[in-house]
Amino acid sequence: MTLSPMENIIRILGMTLLLTGFVPEGLAQGNFAGNFQKLVGKTFKDKSELTDLQGYTFREGSLVSPVDDPESITVDVYQRGSNAVVFFSINENPDDSEYVIADVLEVKNVQPGWQIRTTFCRQSNIENPEIVALVKSSVTEEFLTTVRQAWRFSRDKRRFELLNVKGIDCMSEGGD
User: Which regions of the chain are under pLDDT 70?
Assistant: First the structure.
């Protein structure tokens, strides 16, 4: 089969991008969204507008960015049974109350005695509000150190990235 010169250029460009690992930034969101992929990029002013979360219970939510930052970044956790949904939302205009969901993380099979923790996690004893972790609950420990999985929301790339759990811990709230 003979390709035209333009088809050859496109083929070579595609192979080059594939071999260099280049992925356009907008295509990288949603890698961990599972059944909630359609939430990525959704805008809302009130979380009640997020009908995809019907039947899910709000578990926690926090402001991640500094209070005086003109860009407001929040993280929210919802759960139904053993399935949890975590999403980071961004408001780039302090004069507008509209947020855009930057990325979503679906965590399946959160077993009893385990919980999703956000905002108050550390990596190598350094606080990082961008870390989300699946941790074993404890009513006696100040920090939860048994971590099954961990992710970080990259503010620059606007997406979740998988983390190595070594050195990750999260502040305990006295169990779940």
Answer: 1-28, 174-176
